[in-house]
């Protein structure tokens, strides 16, 4: 909210889009996830929101989630716990925004295709829990292939069918561009700073 104040954010006309992991990053996880109920705020699902959902059906994921900042969720009153699960369930895996003649995409972690339309279609495959397939849904929530390659893996190229894609998940020292993907998680939770970018501006 302090950063929005600095840039004179207009709550009636402007829009914030989060690239996921609104929760498990401090004492105000509940207030953060409830931001999606505001008309000026949109978010996609991150792997931490995914952990909330998986923990509701698998006890081993609850322990894993708690080790990674999720204990707050299980300390909530039951009605609030269910409310958070509902919010997480309804968060989209990706967002696509058309603005000033360009198409912008938002994915939490990674994209394992060089074609945006192919990637969107493959997200509908029912293979998230498969160990033998390169699931696009797993990649979108947990992957790091493109950023780890640092542009050196010839498997990854500029993604066709979209102008720019914004991602989080992997902490970078500063906004990092790989092809037409921009990684913007600059590690505020680890004592660094929050990145806030305005669409349509030169990077």
Written overview of the protein:
This is Metallophosphoesterase. With 203 residues, the protein is of the alpha/beta class. It folds into 2 domains: 15-91, no CATH class; 93-203, Purple Acid Phosphatase, chain A, domain 2 (4-Layer Sandwich), CATH 3.60.21. 33% of the residues lie in helices and 14% in strands. It is built from 8 helices and 7 strands. Helix 3 (47-55) crosses helix 4 (59-74) and helix 3 crosses helix 5. The longest helix is centred in the N-terminal third of the chain and has 16 residues, at 59-74. The model has no long low-confidence stretch (mean pLDDT 94).
Q: What's the SSE pattern?
A: HEHEHHHEEHHHEEE
By secondary-structure content and strand pairing, the structural class works out as alpha/beta
Task: List segments where confidence is low: pLDDT < 50 over at least 5 consecutive residues.
Answer: none
Number of extended strands: 7
Q: What's the average pLDDT?
A: 94
Text of the CATH class of the largest domain: Alpha Beta
CATH topology of the largest domain: Purple Acid Phosphatase, chain A, domain 2
Give a quick summary of the entry.
This is Metallophosphoesterase. With about 200 residues, the protein is an alpha/beta fold. It has eight helices and seven strands; from the N terminus they run αβαβαααββαααβββ.
